[in-house]
Specification:
Largest sheet: 6 strands, parallel
Number of helices: 14
Radius of gyration: 19 Å
Bound molecules: 5'-deoxyadenosine
Strand content: 5-15%
Structural class: alpha/beta
Strand order of the largest sheet: 2-3-4-5-6-7
Order of helices and strands: HHHEEHEHEHEHHEHEHHHEHHE
Number of strands: 9
Distance between the termini: 27 Å
Helix content: 40-55%
């Protein structure tokens, strides 16, 4: 297995069979060996600095009905909200004061945010905070829509591919959605000029090691600036309520592999990872992650943006959440940076 890890480090890719073997068979010792390499690579590009992004959850309305997601259209128990332009701007104001230099506007696929409305919000943030990066995470839209957002001043777009395998995609989503179209959107985003973030859930229902290997190979083809992964966590009011959550160990292994594949990219230690284990995010950083995304959403909407059960930080103020993370990072020898946090060149 060590040979496979060394080969991955040297070539930055393996065959589908080799990836599958590594994912299925890596022992505790192999994983530690891999993490020592992945940590060193992250350190080579980013030292002990961890970038932060202020996450603003702008709406939990969604026209989609993804089987895993707590804000799916059919979940009648979800109490719906959307933020106004002024509310979003005041989140940015609070965030800037706290030292955030990237704002991520994330939401369900909510028709209220037309291209006009969204472009207006983006240009206001762009002129108020010329030194900040604006990241969007608003799902699938048209090529024209993406281009408008970029031209209005957004820099980055997060859209996880979720799973690269079409049959598995169909098992996680309603039949009107497809892996092919999701991938198409990612290539449109790149063409529009965005720095692109993709990713997937680990341990989603029906997922195999081979699916994960395919995810890695798709990412190699895409060439993203960021890859976000987290364990699948069930949500009680979804069709997947009874499925087991993904494991922290497998998520960490995937983070380590991603770091060997893409030494210089941005890899977040995600909220989902922090949710399945009290030290999930710290372990993520020690496996090669270099970004955290604390919540900047207004306190009164936090509990409504429940993608999965028990999501952490849903009851604390932005400042408190940030201070907690700061301390957690210091404890493992890292520190949060006040920086846009662009992807370093190779
Ligand atoms: N568990 C873990 N992650 C989830 N997401 C959505 N629902 C869940 C869940 N139940 C992730 C998806 C999506 C991102 C915003 O959150 O991967 O792209």
């Amino acid at each position: 297995m060590r040979q496979l890890i060394d080969k991955l480090k040297a070539n930055r890719v393996l065959s589908e069979d080799e990836f599958t073997e590594l994912i299925e068979k890596a022992s505790e010792e192999d994983r530690e060996y891999l993490f020592s390499q992945s940590r060193e690579l992250a350190g080579k590009y980013y030292g002990n600095g961890i970038y932060t992004r202020g996450l603003i959850e702008i709406s939990n309305y969604c026209k989609n009905d993804c089987y895993y997601c707590g804000i799916r259209k059919s979940n009648e128990k979800a109490s719906r909200y959307r933020l106004t332009e002024e509310e979003i701007l005041s989140c940015c104001e609070v965030g800037y004061e706290l030292g955030f230099r990237t704002f991520v506007m994330q939401g369900g696929e909510d028709g209220y945010y037309t291209d006009d409305r969204m472009a207006h919000i983006i240009s206001r943030i762009r002129s108020a905070y010329p030194d900040c990066a604006i990241t969007l995470s608003l799902g699938e839209r048209s090529k024209e829509s993406y281009q408008r957002f970029f031209d209005a001043g957004a820099n980055r777009y997060l859209l996880r591919h979720e799973t690269a395998d079409e049959a598995h995609y169909k098992a996680l989503h309603p039949q009107n959605l497809s892996a092919a179209h999701r991938k198409q959107c990612l290539f449109w985003l790149k063409e529009a000029g965005f720095q692109v973030g993709s990713g997937f859930m680990v341990g989603s229902p029906g997922q195999t090691a081979r699916h994960l290997a395919k995810d890695l190979l798709f990412l190699k083809e895409l060439g993203p600036q960021m890859v976000g992964i987290g364990p699948f966590i069930r949500h009680q009011d979804t069709p997947f309520a009874k499925y087991e959550s993904g494991s922290m160990e497998q998520t960490l292994l995937m983070i380590g592999i991603l770091r060997l594949m893409f030494p210089n990219i941005l890899i977040p230690a995600t909220t989902a990872l922090g949710t399945i284990h009290p030290f999930g995010r710290e372990k993520g950083v020690l496996a090669g992650a270099n970004v955290v995304m604390p919540n900047l959403s207004p306190l009164d909407v936090r509990k409504k943006y429940m993608l999965y059960d028990n999501k952490i930080s849903s009851g604390v103020e932005a400042a408190e959440g940030l201070a907690d993370l700061e301390q957690r990072m210091e404890e493992i020898g890292y520190h949060l940076l006040v920086d846009r946090g662009d992807c370093k060149k190779e």
